[in-house]
Sequence to fold (874 residues):
Amino acid sequence: MQRRPARRISWVVVALGTIGLFQVLLAIFSIQLLAAVQSYVIGESLYSKAQKDAHIHLLEYLQSGTEEDHRQFLDAVAIPVGDRMAREELDKAAPDFEVVRRAFLAGGNHPDDIDGLIWLYRWFHDSSLMAEAIASWREGDLAVAELQAVDKQLRLIPPSRRFDEALTAEMRAKVASINLRLTRLERTFSDRLAFNARLLRRAAIAINALAAALLGFLGLGIVRRGLRDRELAAHEIRRRQQLLQQLLDSTTEGLLGVDTRGFCTFVNRAALDRLGYRQESELVGHEVHSVIHSRCELVAGEQTCPVQQTFLKMEPAHRQASQFWDRQGRAFPVEYWAHPMYQDGRPDGAVVTFFDVSEQRRTKAALEKSEAKLAKLIEAVADAVISADEHGRIVLFNRAAEQVFRLRAEQVLGRPVAELFKDLALLDGGAPAAAPGGKPLELVGLRGDVPFPAEATFSRVDTGPGPQTTIVLRDVSEQLAMRREREQRQTLEAHSRAKTEFLSRMSHELRTPLNAVLGFAQLMNIDLAHPLDPLNQGRARQIERAGAHLLALVNDVLDLSMVESGRLSLSLQAVEARAVAEEASSVAGTLSEEGRIELDVSFPGPLWVHADEVRLRQSLINLLSNAVKYGGREGPVTLSLVPQHDHCQFSVKDQGPGMTDSQLTHLFEPFNRLGAEHSGVEGTGIGLVLTRQLVQAMGGELAVESAPGQGTRATITLPWAAAPQALAAPRWPVAASSSAARLDVLYAEDNDVNIELMSQLVKLRSWVTFRAANSGALALAMFMQRRPDLVLIDMNLGDVSGLELAAQLRALPGAATARLVALSADALPHQVRMALDSGFEGYLTKPINFAEVLGLFDRLGGAPAPQSASTVGH
Fold:
């Protein structure tokens, strides 16, 4: 009985197996082919990215010339070069596949994709599937080779021509042309592969559909034959009834059958145990509805129990919340399903499947309680908490989020979470597209239309219905503001230190030659043994006056930083305006004479103004020199004093070409020479800026009037000052009497000109013994050979600093009371303060002031008691 049906369907099984095997092989071939094509598409994306990176790094190397940019270019171009090496090896009649694999790996391809790449290329490189794409590939390799040639050409360019603008433009144009061609070829390669892949996919789908149809047709034949042979399987069904009962007993859910009269037809072990019965016979054949489900819950419109409705209406029933009663009459919560059973097409009863949901209800209650606590906790946290469902729509918005975004929860629930941020890209499930693992993501939140910086962490949890993304966010506006303020403060401090260092070095380098200029000019004027004739005395005074002005300018440069920072030190007192104007016009007159123009200076009677004499003189010289340089060749330059009722005006007028309103607008911009940089007239563009700052610091004003063709007038306005008491005329210190004590002076100085100047000055005091050392080591040795009364120390010796030499001298036995005085071109306030704090009795600055040095010799030679630092003075 069993063997004849088997023989009848054997041919069907063979046919099904053959078609199934064909379909499997076809599917394998299709998957392998599509995977290989996909690998080439992925490889093309890597090739394209590497080519773009190579293009960018080559341009950066062209711009910077750094080896780091060149290395990055070589790293990027290695990917297309590796692909090219693989293709060239595959084109050979007998390729070395190990070489091909290494080349594809160098091209960034995944190791698992390489066999597919080789297989597709070997079998289909001449077919329409690959031929056009490979042709684009070959042409692209030629373009990459051109990029490499450009790189080699750049490497051969000498450094002197590296930043030539014409050469750079040519190279950029060439690289851009290659990049454009590569982009077109990459698009062609990708389009052809994509098009062929779609054709392959459609063909595979069609063939597989045909095979599936054949399988369906044969399956239908089997079903028909099965229906005819069902009577042959009847005894098999009876044999398996016992197995079915065993299967029912093995399930954990309760199962029982009910016929149309409400009597139990079968029950499994799980149902017996939960209902409290021991044997099937206690329920099978008995009416069970009134025993276990007599008080069933009826919904609107129902007249009978849902289980009875199942076989009456021939519709399944499901109740999530119901109750059954056990043998002792105790109710317990259940969820049950009732499915109708049929006998020869007629309803024969129902199968009831039920679960005891007592534990589920307890778990649900505990979960609801936990969720309530979590909701309170979320509402209490200081950070904003936002949750979004798998579609990116907001499902949770806590109180802190309302405060951060200034929106109520009911306004945003159900809206896309991306609306709360600027340029936030979300993936499927609401996760950010670029969230770094373990680190807060920097975002820009939107408070209405106003953006604000924020930091957020993202977590994604599968909640059952779908994944849910939670964002914990913090507004970091204040933190960023504090960070920017700290960085700006650090930057300003670094700039301040750099500027101080520059000014210190500039002051030292300028004061050193000025020391010789002013020093020897003073010596020429006071040398009684070799007096100068009146003409040369005048010339020496001009040198001394010009040098003094240059020294004042050096001091002004040092004070420029103090002006900008509000720490300018001024000596405001009554200043005789006529004397200052005469000195300024005398210095500016030198420029006028060199320019062969007339300088017309007219003054009224004596006038006293409240100002700093050095700053006022500097300001007038700046205005006069500008008038001489830019307008003096067109006519006389006039400096006049105009007294007013409560102030005095210094007016400088020239007959130059004048300035336009546009030029006047930019007149006080630092380093802006208003086009004069092309006139051949020297200048820096900071004189007027500094002059106005100095005048304003003295409580005055600077005004400039000008018009094209009418010259320029600059006016300084300063308040009046009462005339001071008469001062004694300055004089040079005279030589002390022969009874003065002898003074042994040791001078540590590494500049021979400064040593010669000091030796000449010392000759004015016959009772002073002078020795000089051109290094710190020699000064230390000479000090130990004979202890001097006074040591003058330069702060920048060749081998040691002045502070280090002073420390070494103080450490010598018996030298703790040695008089040390600094004599240096370093004139910044902090440098002077550092020296005085280190034990120097005084600090003299270069250029040397003869009166101060000779006065120091006279005090120490006539009075052996040491003086305080303030008596020597800076």
About this structure: The CA atoms of residues 750 and 774 lie 4 Å apart. The longest strand covers residues 331-343. Confidence is low (pLDDT under 50) at residues 595-601, 727-739, 863-874.
